[in-house]
Amino acid sequence: MTFHTTAPDFGSTVFARWRAEAGEDWHAYTRHAFVRGLGDGSLPQANFLHYLVQDYIFLFHFARAWALAVVKADNIAEARLAASIVDGLVNHEMSLHVDICGKAGIAEEALLQAEEERENLAYTRYVIDAGLSGDFLDVVAALAPCVFGYGEIGAALAAEAAPDATYRQWIDTYAGEEYHDMCRQVGALVDAAVEARLGPDPQSSPRWAMISRRFQAATRLEVGFWDMGLRG
Ligand SMILES: Cc1ncc(CN)c(N)n1
């Protein structure tokens, strides 16, 4: 995997800036060995399934954090989009996990009972804390690397992986129009939310560095999640 595609910014200038400020951490997340193994099929199936089981739990808590974005929303547009993401996570994205694990003989009840790995605990509780202790910008900045990073990874892998690649179902989910449309909606939400709270020149606000740091912290937690997946 050489990742020739230009990284998409999903129409969001704020995301493009956060990603640039995350620098090497963003690269470590989106070009991780686990990601390369998904693309070329060299990732052992046991590691993939272990990751999927953990990710099922991750998505449950991640949905709880998006629900906190509904709580912290300032207007109906923010509340509607955050609520639709909660719905997308629990009623759609998690189906991928249930389907692939089911085919491998792991029932949904077993997914719910799996013990959380420490990297999973650290990441999910970080985003929930951002939602509990912070405002709307704190929580969306902490949630953003998850949304945009998988969109970027999906697009890069779809462009380079073989049509019959081992992990094609996973790749197609995150390269698909439905997921990318959601990324663009979150991109528009983030830009509007930042402008409404920090003005047209947000980087001159003292809060900018704080929310950009939240994005960077969550990006490093994504790297930890892939490390956990490789450890198996
Ligand atoms: C850990 C993690 N990060 C992001 C995604 C994409 N929603 C995910 N499924 N899992």
UniProtKB/TrEMBL annotation:
Keywords: Hydrolase, Thiamine biosynthesis. GO terms for biological process: thiamine biosynthetic process; thiamine diphosphate biosynthetic process. Its EC number is 3.5.99.2. It holds the Pfam family TENA_THI-4. Pathway: Cofactor biosynthesis; thiamine diphosphate biosynthesis. The keyword Hydrolase applies. It comes from the Bacteria. It is an enzyme of class 3 (hydrolase). Residues 25-231 form the Thiaminase-2/PQQC domain. One of its GO terms (cellular component) is cytosol. GO terms for molecular function: thiaminase activity. It catalyses: 4-amino-5-aminomethyl-2-methylpyrimidine + H2O = 4-amino-5-hydroxymethyl-2-methylpyrimidine + NH4(+); thiamine + H2O = 5-(2-hydroxyethyl)-4-methylthiazole + 4-amino-5-hydroxymethyl-2-methylpyrimidine + H(+). SUPFAM superfamilies: Heme oxygenase-like. Belongs to the TenA family. Catalyzes an amino-pyrimidine hydrolysis reaction at the C5' of the pyrimidine moiety of thiamine compounds, a reaction that is part of a thiamine salvage pathway. This is Aminopyrimidine aminohydrolase.
